[in-house]
Inverse folding.
């Protein structure tokens, strides 16, 4: 039996983090969500913590106070233990060059957070439905 996927949310905006989690739960996803406000703390957990042998799914904001989300994405995809973890970029940045850079670095999905609340909530509910049926590869 496959282990449950732990969702790692790297999001510095508390309101967005609450909205993301609320709508993931509304979609029926009950997976554990570990939330990090800072990229450094998330990377310390991801790279430094040998205990997390469970499959991971990473929700990544690009605009963080301490480091770039693209730097985090690059480090995740370069790490032998993490490179297979799906990364969903969930950010307000809609620059086409930045979007392409994220795909080039290995992100699986890029979702632009709309500013309008109901549209954003609908996008997050769709993300929750995606998570509920997704099969994540086991870590090596």
């Amino acid at each position: 039996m496959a282990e449950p996927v732990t969702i790692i949310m790297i999001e510095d905006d508390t309101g967005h983090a609450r909205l993301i989690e609320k709508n993931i739960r509304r979609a029926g996803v009950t997976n554990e969500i570990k939330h990090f406000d800072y990229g450094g703390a998330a990377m310390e957990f991801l790279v430094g913590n040998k205990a997390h042998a469970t499959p991971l799914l990473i929700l990544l904001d690009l605009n963080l106070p301490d480091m770039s989300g693209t730097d985090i994405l690059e480090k995740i995809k370069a790490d032998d233990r993490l490179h297979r973890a799906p990364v969903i970029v969930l950010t307000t940045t809609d620059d086409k060059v930045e979007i392409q850079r994220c795909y080039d670095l290995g992100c699986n999905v890029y979702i632009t957070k709309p500013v309008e609340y109901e549209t954003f909530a609908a996008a997050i509910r769709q993300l929750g439905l995606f998570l509920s049926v997704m099969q994540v590869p086991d870590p090596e």
